[in-house]
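Dear colleagues,

As part of the handover before I leave the project, I'm documenting each prediction I ran so the next person doesn't have to rerun anything. This entry is a single chain, and its sequence is reproduced below.
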Amino acid sequence: MAENELIDMNLSNYEALIQTPQYSFLLFYTSWCHHCKIIMDEVKEAAAYYLKTPSTSILFAKIDGVLEKDLLEKYDIGEYPTLKFLIDKTCYHYTGGRTSREIIEWIDSKIKNTTIELFDQDELNNYINKNEFVISYFGKNTSKFNTFLHVSRIIDQELFVHSFDESFREKYVQNKEWSGIIIFQDHGQNQITYDGDLSSSAQIIEFIDERKFPSIAKFSSKMAEKVFGENKKCLFLFLDETKKSVDAFESLKKAAIHLADKIIMSFVKYDNQLNERLSDYLGVNRSALPLVTKNSFFLCCFEKILKIKLVNPSEKGPHKLKKYTLEKEISYDNIIDFYDDFSIGALNPSWKSEEVSSSEVNDTYKIQVLFENKRIKITKILEIGGEKFQGSGFRGKQGFFNIVLR
């Protein structure tokens, strides 16, 4: 193969091409796709680089999506261009950049050792002390370990370690298979054992994804993507510098030990725009800190009234983001009880503009609503501060208003 060419792969030569090499890099493209032409030049440069690196043999091939429908179906291709990387015929979806240098860096990260072998307890302790999140396999070198190795190649930017030494198995693994996966979280403060199928990479990946963050992590863009992008439950604690915030954080830390395998927890300080946006999105009153919130859990600690609001982004319906409020002190027992009530569906949702109290007297309802400069639809005549309104909307000033619907 010339340095500026990729092998044309089709259904008839597919098996023969992937039979020998340990690594194969596949580009699915179409002739009419502009982005495919750009990425193909970058892939060619990467192929030329590895041709000059005899210690690493990689097959680079291209598949025309218009002509090779069977191969598209085999690799579940839904868009162009799509890149796949095969290691011993096991397929990995390419998640790197689109330049030749980024392609090379991504491939190198996959063909190197993605899990570190350990030989004694001191090595493990060293990694645990230096890392907040360590994923470990202790057991025999069987197909179960191959599944763990496969997972380590899929999940980027996490530390994977393993050992086949009996001393690790005796200390950490207590099952009939003498193999197990354990996550060490918060520099070893939390130890979480995987009890699922050791042969299922999908189950292992789900187990890891659910526990990627420390029991209580500082809010970040990565956390935002996890919580709101993937609709994960998360407890947010909004902090200031007062003693009340310190006490609330200590209660949350204690609760985290009990709830670590159920929800994500995060603390928030007003030190950047991302945190400001989160505060606005969840309706947090900055002047009323300390305040705890949760996406699926929204704990609000006001100066005189403690509100714990639980926000659930995964619920469906006209109001996708639901909040629940607890009018109690932020304490370990109250947080645990509140979460348990949420889990069994015993809480009623509340909203930024919400009904606080209502009474019916001759078909008249008195409702207290918080307007935050947002347009509120009105379908009936209503009376606000003695002034009557009738129409499709009202833009109110921020604050509490007594509204009478007739």
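The first helix runs from residue 14 to 19. The two ends are 82 Å apart (CA to CA).

All the best with the project,
I.
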